Amino acid sequence: MNYYYARYLKAQGELYNETKKPEEAEKTLLLAQRIIGELYSDSHPIIIDYNAILSEVYALKNTEEGKAKSLQIVDRNLEIAYQYYGKLSIYTNRHELSCVSNKISNGKHAEGQKHVA
């Protein structure tokens, strides 16, 4: 397994997600995420993009379990961004906004507000 195969799987997972096939998208994206985690690490910034798409898949399932997984993933992405880029970096802003958007759409307005500030 290599990086290019993981990128291919990521693109395929995005396609499954866009065509409303969440089970296939989840399976494909989990494999891509695992490959990237093995190549780099589970806390390397490159995994953030793979996590973000997986978070979208879980959020679109519109179940409590899916929402919880989605929130957990965006929190992890933000943690990785803080670790590698720092809290004041412009590279962290994108992940901060993603976290805010996800929390607000899941009804966690107070948690989202602290990231806006």
What does this entry look like structurally?
- With 117 residues, the chain is an all-alpha fold.
- It has one domain: Alpha Horseshoe (Serine Threonine Protein Phosphatase 5, Tetratricopeptide repeat), CATH 1.25.40.
- 80% of the residues lie in helices and 0% in strands.
- It has 6 helices and no strands.
- It has helices spanning 3-18, 22-39, 47-60, 64-85, 90-105, 109-116.
- Helix 1 (3-18) packs parallel to helix 3 (47-60).
- It starts with a helix and ends with a helix.
- The model has no long low-confidence stretch (mean pLDDT 87).
Taken as a percent bin, the fraction of beta residues is under 5%
CATH architecture: Alpha Horseshoe
Q: What share of residues is helical?
A: over 70%
The fold-level CATH name is Serine Threonine Protein Phosphatase 5, Tetratricopeptide repeat
Q: How many DSSP E strands?
A: 0
Largest sheet: none
User: In angstroms, what separates the terminal alpha carbons?
Assistant: 41 Å
* Main structural class: mainly alpha
* The CATH H-level homologous superfamily: Tetratricopeptide repeat domain
Q: Give the quaternary arrangement of the chains.
A: single chain
User: What is the ordering of alpha helices and beta strands?
Assistant: HHHHHH
| Uncertain stretches | none
Coarse shape: flat
Tally of separate domains: 1
Name the CATH class.
Mainly Alpha
What is the averaged pLDDT score? 87
Helix count, DSSP H or I runs of 4 or more residues = 6
